[in-house]
Amino acid sequence: MKIFSKFPRTFWVANSIELFERWAWYGFYMLFANYLTGSSDGGGLEFSQAQKGLLMGVGTGILYFLPSLTGAIADRYGYRRMLAVSFIIYAAAFLLFPMVSSFNAVFATYIFLAVGAALFKPIISATIAKTTDDSTSSVGFGIFYMIVNVGAFIGPLITMLFKSAPSIIFYISAGIILLNFILLIFYREPQRIKTSTSSETLLKSFAQIFGNMAGIFKDVRFIVFLIIAAGFWTMYMQLFFTLPVFIEQWVDTGVLYRFFDTYMPVVSANYSHAPGVINAEFVTNFDAMFIIIFQIAISTLIMRIKLLHAMIAGFIVCSVGMALTLFSQNVIFTIVAIFIFAVGEMAASPKITEYIGRIAPPDRKALYMGYSFIPVFLGNIFAGFISGNVYQAMSDKKLLTQRFAAEKGLHLADELSSGEYFNQVAAQSGMTPQQLTDTLWTTFNPSQIWLVILSIGMLAAVSLFVFDRKMMKQ
Description:
By secondary structure, the chain is mainly α. The chain is 75% helix and 0% strand. The chain contains 24 helices and no strands. The protein has helices spanning 9-37, 49-65, 67-77, 79-96, 103-130, 137-159, 166-178, 180-184, 202-216, 220-236, 238-241, 243-250, 254-263, 265-270, 280-284, 286-302, 307-323, 331-359, 365-371, 374-394, 397-408, 418-428, 433-444, 449-469. It is globular.
């Protein structure tokens, strides 16, 4: 416990700010995929899986690309000032979401939100890096990652109570992010090299930023590492892009509903949108719960392991966890898979950030921590394609139902919502909705999407092993 006393006050304030920011973000983000693609009779926008993948992949990718620029801006203009700007943009974007429903308008609003998040991310990561050292960085980043998941766990638990009223979800996220203005009063900037801005234009500042970027991209080993890490993030982002939709469409959550209905009826009463069904987002939220419980223990366990070796192990375990969803529609099997995935995530994800934080020059922490998001940017772009076009072709229940109906020669009205369409196909086929789901599962094998994701994760692990053996020894 002595190690906790080594962290300065700013470390704990930064973690508290991160807690509320993640609460606001995941409060809507965990529900976002199903909100975009869900049936209109349940409050969804009925976008296609390809539209969802494009919006979430490109939009979230931009969020993780911009810190490469915004980190340098924060180094130049001040952490506290840019945090305030990010909170204002965050809140404004959340308030705009309930007012838009077309694809282009939702996309534009999401990009606006991404700008606010991009201003925020490198500042907090740099603060953690600046308030830890070689003896405290492993535990410090472990605490930081645990705090991230406390927010990721609490946020959806609150907003899921209003799943049928999406506007309230966005209003809650706006209110939570505004609470950070209170914490900002207690935030003290860690030491940074201050540069005069009075005689410099914003254009000159960006010119210097791009000059810094060109210098960093000369480091071939660093760039190779970023590309390999993108494979991990491609796999990881399926937790938000694909898994909630997959559970909503294919996984039987009845056994979990019956358990809570017997022993914790408050859960089944508040986190079920249909009789005998637990919300998909409630199931995926187990990932955050597992990390809250086990992150410090895992971080302590691996703190003496070489950073790259810990990442390799994490990549492999994550891949195995994701792939287990192949074998069963039973939600208990899904929860076990999420637990295995979470163990790998706890080993790998904080280590990626820690690795970059350890090699960054002291006077350019925010700039270098901004580059820690480049693999996440690439991962989101690739993940969006997989969860969009690939998932739509291999696993989308709506399209598979349409294919089944065409093969059976069924004729249905065009104006039906996706939920009504599915129920009509089941009725005309003489099946219950669950029987039709089981028939589609055995006929079209939608779980094969996870073989694609497994392949990506294992390729990243093998590549990192080669990187460790070859390039690092050079």
